[in-house]
Design a protein that fits this description.
Distance between the termini: 37 Å
Number of strands: 6
């Protein structure tokens, strides 16, 4: 198995060094670079062929949300937000900028590693507290979600995406090929005027794009 190449972006020396040690002792991971701010994170992502970028939000020079947008736009890796902030607006901005996951800094090393593996394997990851906030704001209905523009099969896939399932898992559950699932997702993005699959989940859960 190839190592999962990781960039760690955080303005705290303690956090950067701690995560580097945690991941460095595991043969599944390789820390290819660290960054003390968003600008350094963007530069590192452009230089190194990283799989996952662990991104703090509040950093000097450039914050993690802006850095996430630049990294995703250029296709330089998948971003996992790892922060102390659980503010919904920040979550929304991060997801709109293409973050594949959003975690609060309260997880054990093993949990963090599993989250990174999930992101690497194409799944979306969200902290339980954040998911609960999004669900609460949805008030149990998707009143602003325009279900009429999607077919029944597309809605099946939207629900699966909203549960954080990968294309492979969706294909297996719905008895489709992964290629067919990808084609459906492309159509869903176009119909909903959405940029990426994480936005699909947020739109379905909250009615907000």
């Amino acid at each position: 198995m190839e190592k999962i190449k990781v960039i760690i972006a955080d303005d705290s020396d303690f956090v950067r060094d701690g995560m580097r040690i945690i991941l460095g002792v595991d043969e599944d991971f390789q820390v290819v670079a660290v960054a003390a701010n968003g600008q350094e994170a963007v530069e590192a992502a452009g230089k190194y062929d990283a799989d996952v970028i662990l991104m703090d939000i509040q950093m000097p020079v450039m914050d993690g949300i802006e850095a996430t947008g630049q990294i995703v736009k250029n296709g330089w890796g998948k971003v996992l937000i790892l922060t102390t902030f659980d503010d919904y607006d920040l979550v929304e901005k991060a997801i709109k900028n293409g973050a594949k996951g959003y975690l609060i800094k309260n997880h054990t090393p093993d949990q963090l590693k599993q989250m990174i593996r999930s992101i690497y394997n194409g799944m979306n990851v969200m902290d339980d507290k954040i998911f609960e906030k999004i669900a609460d704001r949805s008030t149990g209905s998707h009143s602003n979600f325009d279900e009429k523009i999607f077919t029944t099969r597309e809605m099946d896939i939207i629900r699966e995406i909203s549960e954080g399932h990968s294309n492979k898992e969706i294909a297996e559950k719905l008895f489709l090929s992964e290629g067919t699932v990808k084609n459906y997702i492309s159509t869903i993005l176009e119909k909903g005027n959405l940029s990426h699959r994480t936005q699909v989940a947020v739109y379905y859960l909250t009615g907000k794009k």
